[in-house]
Design goal:
With 151 residues, the protein is an alpha+beta fold. The protein has one domain: 3-Layer(aba) Sandwich (Aminopeptidase), CATH 3.40.630. It has four helices and seven strands, in the order βααβββαβαββ. It has a seven-stranded mixed β-sheet with strand order 1-2-3-4-5-7-6, with helices on both faces. Strand 4, helix 3 and strand 5 form a beta-alpha-beta unit. The protein binds coenzyme A (COA).
Length: 151
Amino acid sequence: MKFSIKNIDSLDDDDLTQVKALDQKFFPFPWSHKQWDELNDNDRLFILKDDMDLVGFSLFRVEVDVFHLLKVLIAPELQSKNYAHQLMKDSYYALVKEAGNERNVFLEVQEGNLKAIRFYERIGLEKGERIKNYYSDGSVALRYFGKPKFT
Ligand SMILES: CC(C)(COP(=O)(O)OP(=O)(O)OC[C@H]1O[C@@H](n2cnc3c(N)ncnc32)[C@H](O)[C@@H]1OP(=O)(O)O)[C@@H](O)C(=O)NCCC(=O)NCCS
């Protein structure tokens, strides 16, 4: 499995089409085209490729003090094989290299998304605020925060 790390500026149309398709198919709250179009110079997209097929991605926003994780996704047939851990580790250290320091990761996750919550807790992130009505269906978000620890 090959990890490619790409800034959204350098993504070719085919990569971006595949990222949007994965998001649409498997993300609990997929983004609209408009939301994808609003990505900017502070956003970094990391993709995981199996030969020509895109099978996962992570998307971060580089903010003043933190790396804000906007999305992470692994295709269902490849989940629970540690690829998310690998993708997150490679993404994080690419961000650290660019920023020049190890910033905290910050994210929101749906309270019922137990698989994602387990994943964030396994890499050492800590539960923070509980935000009511965060998602379009009125569901609750939990914030997670901290310096990730990877094996
Ligand atoms: C969140 C998400 C990326 C996590 O992916 P994941 O596949 O669970 O995470 P990992 O690749 O690190 O795999 C972890 C699992 O593999 C197991 N594992 C770890 N190392 C392993 C190894 N070397 N070999 C086999 N299994 C291993 C872990 O025990 C864990 O098992 P569990 O799922 O039963 O707890 C994934 O669930 C996903 O894409 N979800 C849909 C999108 C989403 O909800 N994103 C988050 C929104 S905020």
